[in-house]
Amino acid sequence: MKVLVVGSGGREHALCWKLGQSPLLSRLWCAPGNAGIAAVAECVAIAAERVDDLVAFATAEAVDLVVVGPEAPLVAGLADKCRAAGIKVFGPSAAAAALEGSKGFMKDMAAKAGIPTAWYGRFTSIAAAKDFIRAKGAPIVVKTDGLAAGKGVVVAMSLDEALAAVDMMMGDKVFGDAGDELVIEEFLDGEECSFFALCDGTTALPLAAAQDHKRVGDGDTGPNTGGMGAYSPTPVVTPALQERIMATCILPLIRTMAAAGTPYTGVLFAGIMVTAAGPKLLEYNVRFGDPECQVLMARLTSDLLPVLLAGAEGRLDGITLEWRDQPALVVVMAAKGYPGPYGKNTVIGGLDAAGAVEGVTVLHAGTALKDGAVVATGGRVLGITATGATVSQARERAYAAVDLLDWPDGFCRRDIAWRAVARGL
Length: 425
What we know:
14 helices; globular; Rossmann fold
């Protein structure tokens, strides 16, 4: 099979790395890819948002399956245009991708499906949003309705912080048009996890759960990021809790989306808060998480290619997945300054030494090749991914690899998987 993966981040490197192991694969492209992806796939200089150009390329090369990594091209209709051109694609339609494209739409669909989630309000007026916040009190969560690269969320522990978030998102337009509408919702207390299911419109097949680390600093401090690390499995998601999440947060949505005429095909990412009252939905995303995808691909022993093809063809009811019992962990190396302003084109050394550590795979996110050297081009730059007999061993291996890198302009959190390590795992 000939496969095109769309995207340029750590998630796409993980997908290409895993798809490249399939005996069914004859050719693998990635558009646009990055310096690390270039070692496992042919990179094509087409940006992920250039939907028509991607469809034209897939048509010209007789691509058998398109796998879409990031959310923006899905919201822009890439999957619809692939299907219209007769190309099989793993990813939701634009109508279904609105689950991530509009947080307000997502909350409305969750309410329609009867899914346990936080109370919320939708606002297009600064004054109305602030009145709602004052009436509800803090802590409270303020979100941009539209896409903001995982950063358009403020968990406000005080009224002043929440009111300032409204001014920043809707008044100052820090996230552009994404802040034209805000979703303001209840603060949920508990332990957060990332839960994934593969969907084909009618069937949902659970993947392994993971736990992400959103805040930039050790001890879960500082602003939210796109994710500074993750590990899988997470002890908070027991087999019984997985069944409950499927029954309350995944399957009702799949049925509701199908009934609405917008069946969901692709990977569904549910952010779950495990509260004292049970699992509650934080949000849906319409893609593999980044950095969660890195640890899922490290643990999956099944051939990924026929699984994604089955999802695209509506055949997931006959698929089973096999996983390594060994945990996997990823530490994200980011450019100093992230998630604020950061420098670009700094040279990264020591990659071969880091990748030679037992159990470690270095996955690239924001990198490029420049004059024969690997340089950092994004905020999140590398995903140092490791497996081990225990979470603690995987973590030791990952940080041993981090310490072999020669990149003074990068940084990472040093406490990834602290909850699991504290439990002696």
